[in-house]
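RECORD TYPE: protein structure
NAME: Putative NBD/HSP70 family sugar kinase
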Amino acid sequence: MHVSGGDLQRLRQLNSLSSIRALRDARRPLTLTELAAHTGLSRGSIVDVVTDLQERGWIAEVEPSPGGMGRPARRYRFRADAGHVLGIDIGVHKVLATITDLNGRAVASGRTSVSPGTPREQRLDAMNRAMDAALIAAGLTSDQMWGVAAGSVGVVDREGVITRVEALPDWAGTDLVGHLAARLPCPITIENDSKLAALAEQRLGVAAGVRDLVYLHAGRRPGAALILNGRPYHGFSGATGEVGLMEITGWRTMTDHLESCPAAAGAPAEDAAALVFGAARTGDPAARAAVEAYAQDLALGTAAMVLTLDPEVVVLGGGFSRSADVLLAPLREALAPHCLRVPEIRPSTLGEECVVLGAACLALDHIDHMFFSPEGALSPPTAPQRPTPA
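PREDICTED:
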């Protein structure tokens, strides 16, 4: 049988991709024997692949540990430090920027504070300062970023423009891609913050490996997102998960149950929930009733998504997830009458870094497709440039 040069080149690329995937998944150096076992390739093929990947700059030989007996086997690692991506969380009260290597390990972060009333240009400036702080801490420049993804409150369309947002007065219409493009030459992706939080939970958090899930942002600003087949579901215009717009769900007013509770009397609205959850934890009847009323409203919108998607897991995120010990049971009970099957509900453990970690995951997904997918080009590791508009 005749094998063309193109077929051989394709086979070599697939062998290289398989080897890189094995080294990345192992998260530790592998010997040639281990790499052959992981990939199913022969010893001779693995030697050729490793030599080629070393020359391209994708893998490196690890120095043997001192003091060993005999000649140590050569070990190789994926060069996760060959490139970096930037994740950004543009929130109502803060902006976070985190730089990770190609394995998703956080290298450096920057943070700035904002408020709901911060004007658009000042919020964008706060984003710039958070990015600069992360770059300085990492000892890197903007030209060395391979990709950037940013999460924002509001509905984000496919072009990365914020089309609708209620939490920030002048944020609708913001062109985040255009702003970031003036500072970063790499590919840029913008997504809704809840969708990125859901992605972080599916990759790194309590729903790691779950293919279908509903993410709830339970807080003073409620939100939701869907993961379908392991990917955030964007929808036609980016408005998936906006079930709270239906007044029948009560999502727009459900925090009133907490803020009007006697346990929060005289406290600022932003402190009410913590006070009520704390009182409910000690058995205060009025506080427990307020939490149950909040859970009833939260369950209505959640049930609509559960009945539509039939997810394996519901992740409870947002600030109120810190009080999952008093909120989960009433939420499960409130869901039961509306659902054929109540999914397992898991509280988030990623905290306030959930969105920025999801942004980094999304940026890495684009890098993976660009370099490490069968359709990608396994070129030497250099920072990709954003395509120039025609």
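COMMENT: The chain has three domains: 5-78, 83-199+353-372, 208-349.
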